[in-house]
């Protein structure tokens, strides 16, 4: 072996020994967590879902504001004036019912003294007809609340799917660590056998060096696998809204899988009927259509009832009251074509959203087909990988027996160990890919929930 190779081997072993060994012993404060519990926790505590919930609360408040348009508006005002303006002085005295003959003297009329006036006004305004603005505005607010609720539901589904993928991702990283740990145990046993053979003169030095290099490489794989476990745990905790360093013990079985049922057309039909983001676009289209009606109302008159009750006094010793009731009609005759332009813009919004709906439907079809084919491929790969693993196990058993009987060298044994490790990794990857693909398929179909399960035995 060259000097540089010896240095590399020594460095790799030192690094492996210097890092803390990941322990499979559960932390005493670790949370036991099943896949279903992870999805429920994410649905309840993820910050994105909570933020979407507040958006729904805001839309609900907007609906209350729109409903207020049907109700009368009542205001109370308290005003104080101190004036020497002739017109205001004379008018204030009339409101106070305090006019005397001397007030008609031209000198007094033209140059009155200072006058205080306290005015208390209770005013009412009630829209009777607004060309459909109030009603359609209320209906728009209803649809806006429905649309934001659909956004909340879709966000919830996305977070649940993310939690499911994060959970099976952590399971995969733990399984990879187990495989590497088992390989290290086998490599240590092989190294002891080769060392014993080398010490007794039955094995050459190259066999010993090959076993040492294999062990060093596996130690590096172990370090990487431990890092992947911690990273996957942090991702799962973050999805559930927990501190990223919260210790977890996953309880769902890794090898159990649900069954892929139905064909791609079935899943596409389910998606078109259930996708919340598509339903939201339908709500936006309804809102846009009503906005056309609201814009057209600019050509129509508006009518409202008005009334007020006034109390006027100079010093609160004597008061005078009065009331006013009436109706106000307003009709815009020309506003620089603002209303016409608004109608044209509202119609353009309707056309735009219709095209967005078409685009969304096409995108959903592609998403569902891609997710279905991915799940189907992963399901088939599981069977292939399981068969390959059985063959690798049998091959390793045969090679071990022949090696122990002196019929094969260490290279053949190490190659068989590597093939067995790769077969286990491929099998674990297939299981992970199928579970993740099923979560993606249900998300694409809009049917995923915290009650979805991907660890049932397939029939």
Q: Which strand order does the major sheet show?
A: 2-3-5-6
Spatial extent as radius of gyration: 40 Å
Main sheet attributes: strand count, strand direction, barrel closure: 4 strands, antiparallel
Number of strands: 6
In what range is the share of β-strand residues? 5-15%
How would the global form be characterised? elongated
User: Mean pLDDT across all residues, rounded?
Assistant: 88
Low-pLDDT ranges: 1-23
SSE order: HEHHEHHEHHEHHEEHH
End-to-end separation in angstroms reads: 55 Å
Residue share in helix:
55-70%
Structural class by secondary-structure content: alpha+beta
Total DSSP helices = 11
Structure description:
By secondary structure, the chain is of the alpha+beta class. It is built from eleven helices and six strands. The strands form two sheets. The protein has a four-stranded antiparallel sheet with strand order 2-3-5-6. The chain has a two-stranded parallel sheet with strand order 1-4. A hairpin with a 5-residue loop joins strand 5 and strand 6. The N terminus is likely disordered.
Write a brief structural summary.
The chain has helices at about 5-20, 35-45, 45-65, 85-95, 105-110, 135-200, 205-240, 265-275, 275-295, 340-405, 410-445; strands spanning about 30-35, 75-85, 115-130, 250, 300-315, 320-330. With about 450 residues, the protein is of the alpha+beta class. It is elongated and about 140 Å long.
Overview features:
four-stranded antiparallel sheet, alpha+beta, 459 residues, 11 helices, disordered N terminus, elongated, single chain
